[in-house]
Amino acid sequence: MKAIQRKRLIFSLAPLLVLLTFVYAYPLLNVCISAFRGYTGASAGTFVGLKNFSIIKADIPKTVLTTLIWTFGSVIPAMVLGLALALLCNQGFRGKKAVVAVNLLPYAIPLIIVASCWRFVYNPDFGVVNVLLKKLGVIEESISFLSFKNALASVILARIWRAAPFAFMNYYSALTTIPADEYEAARVDGAGTVQCFFHITLPNLKTITSSTLTVLTVWTFLVFDIIYGMTGGGPVDATKTISMRIYQEMFSMKNMGTSSAWSLIAITILVIITCFYWRFMDREEVS
């Protein structure tokens, strides 16, 4: 009987496995093969070993560092902001539904539109930020937010604004599932707000924190639209992340080999980060 059920399960999952093979496995295999083949000149279509990696090796340290700063500089603040907003909205107050709706609004806007809006906000002549700072007397001359020195921080701020609602949604839904009895029992024992947060709220949010952190890290690592729409990877290479390198190598340089090499580097880094997250969260659960 168990053998029959096992066969039925395999047959029922077969269409999904075939779909996943074509959607994920085949493109991944193609990228791995392309990273070691030449696509320009006399080497077009032939195996070239590590030549594609040697072409880009000078740019790897700077690009990886920029990508990691962009990723964690966006994800960690977005997680903290999302948690803070979720804790606020978990309290009962008038207008709560409107506040929740406003918090979710940035997530409903396409990334390329987000980039266009923030370019307008950062405009040195009539941008909202510069105009406001001048009226408050904080600055006398306009700040060039998308200059070489400020560009990375500026695009990170735009990404935080866009990513925080995702963390907010997850945390807010998780907070509503925590039994009120736990807080009542803790208060009877003399626990304050801070103690309740660290001993009840955070432990109950470990699972959602792990999943949200992983998803946001992968998404942000590969985000292309905001950087492309705001800076195009510049000025010079100030915001040139791996996703921008992949795009430029593929569509500007017309070199699938180096583009695939950058893709393999991105996959490797994401696998390492994800494994680290899982191992860290497993240790937290054991302890």
Keywords:
0% strand
What's the mean pLDDT score?
Answer: 87
* Proportion of residues in extended strands: under 5%
Helix content: over 70%
Structural class of the secondary structure composition? mainly alpha
Determine the N-to-C terminus distance. Answer: 41 Å
For the secondary structure, the number of strands is 0
The CATH class of the domain at 61-254, by name, is: Mainly Alpha
Query: Looking at the structure, what is the overall shape?
Result: flat
Give the C-alpha Rg.
Answer: 24 Å
Q: Major beta sheet, specifics?
A: none
Would you give an account of this structure?
The chain has 287 residues and is mainly alpha-helical. It has a domain at 61-254: Orthogonal Bundle (MetI-like fold), CATH 1.10.3720.10. It is built from 13 helices and no strands. The protein is flat, with a radius of gyration of 24 Å. The two termini are 41 Å apart.
In short:
By secondary structure, the chain is an all-alpha fold. The protein is 73% helix and 0% strand.
Protein topology:
Blueprint (H helix, E strand, L loop, with lengths): L1 H33 L16 H6 L3 H30 L6 H9 L6 H12 L5 H8 L15 H25 L4 H9 L4 H12 L1 H17 L2 H6 L11 H11 L3 H31 L1
Helix pairs in contact: 1-13, 3-7, 3-10, 5-7, 7-10, 10-13, 12-13
